[in-house]
Amino acid sequence: MLYQALFVPPDTTPLPKEIIFQPELAKYVQNWGLNEDQGLIAVLEDGQTLVGAVWLRIFKSNNPGYGYIDDHTPELSIAVLPQYRDRGIGTKLLSELFSQVRNQYSAVSLSVSSNNPALRLYHRLGFEVINRQNNSLTMKKDF
Question: Domains in the chain, please, with CATH?
Answer without folding.
Answer: 17-142 (3.40.630.30)
